């Protein structure tokens, strides 16, 4: 769902529609909107699962402070989707647990 | 009027917390006062590292050894979590000179039973696989170093003391004292007066100000140290990392910006440390210092540059002019015990707190702490800051 007529911001203007991939599923998004906005518009509410108990989390503060909406974006984990803007072809994944530390296999 | 108790502990950091914990265990009635709240000072803003090879052999290392056992005990009897992990730690060297001095330094520790070695080049990656060995030429490894959770420990001490009957007064700032016959009779705060047989001052960076109310001029100053923290990530940094000049020199005074970091059990990495001297207790952070720290981190760990920094803060930490703790009974006020300026206090606070409780209650005296006595600053001279 999107707000098309906003009492203060006015009418939604023509925007370029692009495509992003969320957990392998293709969704449409408006170029330059926050990833979180595109997900909500597509009905996706769960962005990540918590570290200890794998509980679902999604958008909370919406202004980059709380880090609840972090996901893996183009292979980078812990990306705050509320302040990261959509680009065509982005690959977004639900983040389960901690983010990636580094790429070496033989960690501890 | 507040009822008179056995002991008032001023300062709810790890040092005041440990002392209150052991006094309470011994059945004493204790009041803990903090101008802000528990763990609001340096104890809630640090890197959580256990450091060994920046300490002179002697009582500090005895305290360190005993403290590791005590941390295990708190977990075993289910009092509180410490997240203590003896992962081994490294101090970073950037040139041949530092490595050479480092070799001398670790000898001293190996001789008394610690397990230290100098790692060169690629060998450093056995401990820290992501470190950039183009920059870091060598490292002093010490197996007995590690990390812990400073919040859980500080609050653990205080909560346990409170559970067993002690009282914590937050937002209660000690403003002055009433003295008679060289004894503190009354501790005056913004929330009224408190009374006790004995008074413990464990006020960290604020100690010089507070002691001036007793016409004492302790040569204890302070600086502001900043850290930043990342979002939680999988394990990628094993143990505590400190600048080598901590190990081979005495870099505690003045301004500096050097890389030291810890990855914690929850996956976050605290990255420090930008340190500035100040003449006020402002906890602000410096823009230049923060940017420089981020740059240092990315140079040292180029493969980890995608980590997200989510907070930056600073904490006020004291340093004593002669680099020794101020620990023991005052020579001037007979019921005043001071415990401040214990460097890297998390490595030693359990044992130092336990001994302090014994000294306070039984008036026992351990000759090994003689040189820490506050009396060395009570001879009447005034110091310029
Ligand atoms: C950036 C940084 C990194 C550090 N890293 C490490 C590390 O990795 N490992 C380690 O062991 N140590 C580290 N330290 C040092 C460590 O934090 C301190 O040694 C330790 O916290 C000191 O504990 P404390 O109880 O003496 O002081 P504090 O925790 O500062 O406690 C003093 C308390 O006294 C209260 N107080 C002061 N004046 C009054 C008053 N007049 N009335 C009432 N209350 C008052 C304050 O509010 C405060 O809560 C670091 C410090 C900093 C700043």
Word description of this protein:
Chain A has 108 residues and is mainly β. Chain A has a single domain, classed as Roll (Ubiquitin-like (UB roll)). Chain A has a five-stranded mixed beta sheet, with helices on one face. In chain A, a hairpin with a 2-residue loop joins strand 7 and strand 8. The model of chain A has no long low-confidence stretch (mean pLDDT 92). Chain B is α/β, with parallel strands linked by helices. Chain B folds into two domains: 187 residues, 3-Layer(bba) Sandwich (FAD/NAD(P)-binding domain); 155 residues, D-Amino Acid Oxidase, subunit A, domain 2 (D-Amino Acid Oxidase, Chain A, domain 2), CATH 3.30.9.10. Chain B is 27% helix and 28% strand. Chain B is globular and about 65 Å long. The relative contact order of chain B is 0.20. The model of chain B has no long low-confidence stretch (mean pLDDT 94). Classes of the chains: A mainly beta (108), B alpha/beta (385). Chains A and B meet through strand 8 of A and loops of B. Flavin-adenine dinucleotide (FAD) binds next to helix 1, strand 13, strand 16 and strand 17 of chain B.
Summarize the structure.
The complex is a heterodimer of chains A (108) and B (385). Chain A has 108 residues and is mainly beta.
Could you give the topology of this structure?
The complex is a heterodimer of chains A (108) and B (385).
Chain A: E1 5-6, E2 10-11, E3 17-22, E4 25-30, H1 35-41, E5 48-49, E6 56-57, E7 70-73, E8 76-80, E9 91-93, E10 95-96
Parallel strand pairs in A: 3-9, 5-10
Antiparallel strand pairs in A: 1-2, 3-4, 5-6, 7-8, 7-9
Chain B: E1 5-10, H1 14-25, E2 30-33, E3 49-50, H2 59-76, E4 89-93, H3 96-111, E5 116-120, H4 124-127, E6 138-142, E7 146-147, H5 150-163, E8 167-169, E9 174-180, E10 183-189, E11 192-194, E12 196-201, H6 207-212, E13 220-230, E14 241-243, H7 244-248, E15 256-263, E16 269-277, H8 287-300, E17 309-320, E18 326-329, E19 336-340, H9 349-362
Parallel strand pairs in B: 1-2, 1-12, 2-8, 4-14, 12-19
Antiparallel strand pairs in B: 3-7, 4-6, 5-6, 9-10, 10-11, 13-16, 13-17, 15-16, 18-19
Bound molecules: flavin-adenine dinucleotide.
């Amino acid at each position: 769902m999107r707000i098309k007529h906003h009492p203060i911001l006015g009418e939604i203007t023509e925007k370029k529609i692009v495509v992003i991939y969320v957990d392998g599923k293709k969704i449409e998004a408006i170029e330059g909107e926050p990833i979180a906005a595109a997900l909500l518009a597509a009905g996706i509410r769960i962005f990540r699962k918590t570290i200890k108990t794998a509980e679902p989390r999604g958008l909370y503060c919406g202004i980059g402070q709380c880090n609840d909406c972090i996901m893996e974006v183009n292979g980078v984990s812990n990306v705050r989707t509320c302040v990261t803007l959509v680009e065509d072809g982005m690959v977004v994944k639900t983040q389960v647990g901690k983010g990636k530390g580094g790429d070496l296999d033989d960690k501890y | 009027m507040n009822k008179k108790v056995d002991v008032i502990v001023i300062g709810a950091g790890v040092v005041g917390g440990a002392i209150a914990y052991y006094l309470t265990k011994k059945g004493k009635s204790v009041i803990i006062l903090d101008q802000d709240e528990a763990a609001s000072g340096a104890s809630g803003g640090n890197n959580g590292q256990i450091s060994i090879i920046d300490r002179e052999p002697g009582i500090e290392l005895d305290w360190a050894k005993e403290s590791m056992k005590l941390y295990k005990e708190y977990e075993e009897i289910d009092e509180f979590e410490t997240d203590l992990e003896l992962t081994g730690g490294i101090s970073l060297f950037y040139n041949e000179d530092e490595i050479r001095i480092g070799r001398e330094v670790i000898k001293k520790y190996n001789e008394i039973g610690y397990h230290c070695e100098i790692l060169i080049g690629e060998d450093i990656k056995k401990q820290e696989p992501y470190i950039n060995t183009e920059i870091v030429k060598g490292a002093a490894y010490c197996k007995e170093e590690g990390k812990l959770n400073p919040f859980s420990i500080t609050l653990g001490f205080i909560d346990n003391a409170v559970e067993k009957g002690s009282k914590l007064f937050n937002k209660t700032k000690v403003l002055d004292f009433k003295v008679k016959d060289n004894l503190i009779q009354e501790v005056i705060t913004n929330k009224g007066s408190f009374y006790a047989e004995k008074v413990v001052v464990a006020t960290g960076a604020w100690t010089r100000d507070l002691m001036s109310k007793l016409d004492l001029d302790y040569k204890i100053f302070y600086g502001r140290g900043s850290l930043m923290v990342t979002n939680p990530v999988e394990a990628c940094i094993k143990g505590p990392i400190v600048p080598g000049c901590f190990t081979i020199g005495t870099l505690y005074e003045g301004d500096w910006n050097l890389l030291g970091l810890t990855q914690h059990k929850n996956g976050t990495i605290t990255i420090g440390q930008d340190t500035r001297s100040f003449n006020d207790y402002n906890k602000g952070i410096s823009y230049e210092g923060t940017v420089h720290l981020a740059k240092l981190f990315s140079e040292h760990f180029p493969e980890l540059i995608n980590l997200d920094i989510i907070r930056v803060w600073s904490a006020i930490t004291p340093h004593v002019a002669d680099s020794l703790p101020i620990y023991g009974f005052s020579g001037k006020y007979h019921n005043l015990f001071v415990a401040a300026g214990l460097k890297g206090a998390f490595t030693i606070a359990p044992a130092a707190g336990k001994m302090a409780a014994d000294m306070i209650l039984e008036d026992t005296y351990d000759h090994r702490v003689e040189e820490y006595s506050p009396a060395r600053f009570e001879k009447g001279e005034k110091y310029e800051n």
